[in-house]
């Protein structure tokens, strides 16, 4: 009889365990926060020389901070495709920003939805296609706009007045408050547009950050003499390729006046009108502001213009570089300050509602970014500032607060990590590795010591040449191909700024031999090949 009651009790427990109210407790919720082009150098948990980000830092303080997190292909839409599919670009097909994303592929949110999660995606996706596998979405079309952005919604498209980072957060919090199904665990992908170029902060942060001065990186005046052709020919130098109007937000009185300032990027079209490549000039983002918003921005814009008009004619190239660097940092970091405030709003909401206790929170970026290192802005290269990306994860009662890890982890690993956390089977053809052992502090079960990288988008804006390579904690070996055939090797421990390509240095002969073989093996392991490289040449 006793056995009978125990059995009945157990059956009741199992049934209630499957019932909706309990489900929330056995499966963790996931809040995936990703910003666009957020350099780890601009997060105080990594480095506090440029900015304080107390809210983003909360995730690291309460969880784990990865110091060697990196991407497989340092460019926006491809990184997102890797994250969603758990496969390298050459297999998911989204090799660059222009390739179409084949949305018949399995993405991890679809698997979550099928497994009973409520799924949503808010913010920047950057694909031509609407997201699959999400119950609800509000995404920016393409790159999206900073001011009064348009959104593509599940029900209808809409334009919302306000600053993009605040608006994405308002929408996300509204989803939590009015749309969340309390009977299901959730997967929320909360994706910021900031700090993507052309770095428009809110009017308040614009004013605040214009008053600040930032330390220059050691390599701001790099002349690339220790590097190969790729570094020398890239068009991402702050002095020569950053644009006064579009980026530094200088407003010329006339186009003729601007032509004098930026002769190198102003082209005269057949009909005599002026055109600048790759940038919509000053008005592309600002043109969306209403009169009230313009008035607020004008206070700071007038100061910038006054300074520029008075001082630019007297500046030599070195001074111009310094001036442009400061303007860049003021705007870039101003946008990040809003991301940090808004991440704080969402973390506060999770805490106030107690949802934080069973929610995995991830903060990352779609890749890293140059903040003047090597004189550059933008990304794309296998070199550290663009190859590495910020990554921190908190998961109460699983990750020990304040943990740090130097393991080589990649955006390729997210899908399998989340699937394992949610106890959902991952498809066999996913190519990452679940980070769960590292999250649990079980470093012995982690045996990957090198990662594979492959960048394709060339020729294109910024002219970063195509390359693939292998990176471990000590070395980085890269092969630049397409219209050149050059190899580069960097000694990561002895030359952390990557100033010297030591590929031809006899001292490194054995390292080159060993890594060349390992790179070949990795290409086989991940099913990449010369045939595929050629098939992507257009
Ligand atoms: C735009 C930017 C580039 C940037 C690409 C890709 N120019 O073209 O600087 O490299 O996007 O960025 S902009 O001034 O017109 O914004 S990505 O993050 O979307 O891949
Ligand atoms: Ca990006």
Protein structure class: alpha/beta
Instruction: Report strand %.
Output: 5-15%
Secondary-structure arrangement, i.e. CATH architecture of the largest domain: 3-Layer(aba) Sandwich
Q: CATH superfamily membership of the largest domain, which one?
A: Alkaline Phosphatase, subunit A
Largest beta sheet, briefly?
Answer: 10 strands, mixed
Number of strands: 18
Per DSSP, the total helix count is 19
- Any idea how many domains? 2
Bound molecules: 2-deoxy-6-O-sulfo-2-(sulfoamino)-alpha-D-glucopyranose, calcium ion
Strand order of the largest sheet: 7-6-5-4-8-1-11-12-2-13
The residue ranges in which pLDDT falls below 50 over 5 or more consecutive positions are 1-24
Query: How is the CATH topology of the largest domain named?
Result: Alkaline Phosphatase, subunit A
Q: Note the gap between the termini.
A: 76 Å
Word description of this protein:
- There is one protein chain.
- The chain has 538 residues and is α/β, with parallel strands linked by helices.
- It folds into 2 domains: 31-198 and 332-535, Alkaline Phosphatase, subunit A; 226-331, no CATH class.
- 36% of the residues lie in helices and 15% in strands.
- It contains 19 helices and 18 strands.
- It has helices spanning 2-18, 20-26, 54-61, 76-85, 89-92, 108-114, 164-179, 203-210, 229-233, 238-241, 255-261, 283-286, 291-311, 317-353, 384-387, 414-421, 436-439, 509-525, 530-535, and strands spanning 29-35, 64-66, 69-70, 118-124, 136-140, 150-153, 158-159, 186-191, 267-268, 274-275, 359-365, 391-394, 403-405, 409-410, 450-455, 467-472, 475-480, 486-491.
- It has a 10-stranded mixed β-sheet with strand order 7-6-5-4-8-1-11-12-2-13, sandwiched between helices.
- Helix 7 (164-179) packs parallel to helix 14, helix 8 runs parallel beside helix 13 (291-311) and helix 8 (203-210) crosses helix 14 (317-353).
- The longest helix has 37 residues, at 317-353.
- The chain starts with a helix and ends with a helix.
- Residues 1-24 have low confidence and may be disordered.
- Residues 36-37, 76, 366-367 line the site of calcium ion.
